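hey m, so remember when u said the tokens were messed up on ur end? i reran from scratch. heres the input so u can diff it against urs
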Amino acid sequence: MPEMRRSVILISILALSMIASPETFNVIAQNAEMHSYTFILSFEPANATVTGTLNMRYVNHASKSLSELCFHIYPNAFKSKGGYIDILQVKDTEGKSLRFTVEGEDETVLRTTLDRPLKPGEAVNITMAFHIKIPNVADRFGYKSGIYCLGNALPIASVYEDEVGWNNDPYYPYGESFNSEFASYSVTIKCPLNYIVAATGVLTNKMVSNGIKTTTWKASPVREFVIVLGNNFKVSKQAVGNVTVYSYYLPEHSEYGLKALEWGVKALTHFSEHFGIYPYPEYRIVETYGWFGGMEYPNLVMISSSLYTEESADFLELVVAHETAHQWWYCMAGNDENDEPWLDEAFAEYSEILYYEWEYGPEVADEMFERYILSSYHRYLNSGKKEHPLSESVWYFGDDTNAYYTMIYDKGACILRLLRFIMGDEKFFEALKLHFERSRFKLIKIQDFINTCQEVYGSSLQWFFDEWLFDAGNTAFKIEDAYAIAKDSEYILHFSVYQSNPQYINLVPILIKTESGEELSAIWVNTSEIEYNITLTVRPTEIIIDPYDYVPGIDRKNSVHIEIVTGPRGTEKNIIMPVAITLVAVILVIIAVKLVKKREPVQR
């Protein structure tokens, strides 16, 4: 990583003011309309199980009465790997057993029938008893070498949507397919004394008895609750404003466990300043084993143990920034990760680049964008693989993980960078901040973001999102016929731009190199061919279209040398042609005269 990285964390007073205050947290925690979950869990590492009970207050947020409730029970997606959840019983407020079924192609949906319809705005208490088997796999739900991850392990209510009913999407193994409402949680966990617990929220109580440690955690409002337990964790922490950031890591990875803490503090500070405050009192970064680089949950992120090395330090910082950004995009601005993954993954992907820009400067940010995002997207295009709309769900991509990650993450981040170029920095960041403000603790859609961008921009941007989100293509440019006319003390630069996809409308940057430096400008291209004239005060030498690859696609001929001429090319042709004809005529006359002379009789 570049040497300009600083080892000392410098935090401005302004940045500190953007981190949560206790008053902020208390205000957002008071919401009687949220669901509330109370779990009591007992963890037994000897047989990798969790037994537990749930007491839930479910509030009907729909506009119609509900005769049944649905829950996601994701551990059943791991049956082929030895993991599962058994629902032992479901009861109502009076303690009466309710009928329930386990459904879905992967048996990850629990459907229970209520004794009477639940009217809009009414609440019902549901109790549930269950038994969870943790699989022996390196995953967000699984265990390896003494670290147990309970990601998406607890029963959680499905989202009811007035237009379509229950959102019971299955578990997607290659990314995230989760969607849940904001709720309050109280979770009590019993475990052996030698295990350290990291969880969503704040530790509010701790007791030890007969070798068993009991901890209680509370969080509100959050979309879900995650737990990680380890028997060999070291824990470091650092305060930033009113937030305490924790790093959990293995002893042999102490150097990079401390680095992860440092980078997490920096990322939290930057994002709080530019997107909106982080309103919770605590945030945790936890080393785990997994096929992923990182995995986001409210107030806690899992980071793969394989990154805690000198060789992977650059990527570790990138992943910490990415997962921290998810605290804003998904954890607080509540999109449906299944139906619209672009709305959080592309945002987190581009936010990690913004982290580098704000921490190390634009040159380092550009380098990281090229190395980790643009090069990946270009490799995909050069392989001849098909592009896809970015508005599609995770299941649209199915098992094609290369297409999923390249389109949603890489091209998705490219689209946000292009949007920033079109809107300009001031309006783009104003739109991001306003989008977060309006979306915080709400379930949102892509159209909400589009509406905010158009409002801030002051003009329609639907054409932009139609092209880059809802369409599946890209475009490319080339420059031809570039020359400059020297006139007095000015140069009139003429060039033609050709676009491979003439239906697209694009604001395209052009870089003009001159004898004294460079000038960056921009032109609108909305057809297959368009001509431009630009007046310059210095002699141009070269013109490059889309020099920083803002517009997705690969430009095959984007750099052209500029010829200096004395008049327009068309005028030169009109002058040269008559001159050429005259010269040919003169030559023919001379030849004819010589031939006539040869045929004259010789005078004796």
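this time it looks ok to me. Residues 477-565 form a domain with the Immunoglobulin-like fold (CATH 2.60.40.10). if urs says something different then somethings off w ur setup not the seq
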